[in-house]
Amino acid sequence: MDLLSEPLAFEFMQRALFAGIAVAAVCAVIGVFIVQRGLAFLGDGLAHAAFGGIAIGLFLGASVEHAVWIAIPFTAAIAIGIGYILRRTQLRGDVATGVFFSFSFALGVLFLGLRTAADRPVQVEHLLFGNMLSVTPTVLYVVVTVALVALALTLLLWSRLAYAIFDPELAAISGVPVAVLEYLLLAETAVVVVVAVKTVGVVLVSSFVVIPAASARLIATTLGRATLYALGIGTLGAAVGLIASYHLNTPSAATIILIHCAVFAAAVAWSRIRR
Amino acid sequence: MNESIPPTMKSLERRESARALIQTRPDPALPHVLDVDHVTIDIHGKRIIDDVSFWIPKGEFLCLSGPNGAGKSTLLKAVMGLIDVTSGTIRIGGEDVVAGHHKVGYVPQRKAFDRDFPARAIDLIVAAMRGKWPQRIRPDERERAKAALEKIGGARLIDKPLAGLSGGETQRVFLARALVNDPSLLILDEPTAGVDARGRAELLDLMAQISRSDELAAILVTHNLAAVAQTAERIVYLEAGRVLCWGLPQELLGQESLTALAGFQGRDHRAAPDEE
Question: To the nearest whole angstrom, how far is the Cα of B89 from the nearest Cα of chain A?
Answer without folding.
Answer: 18
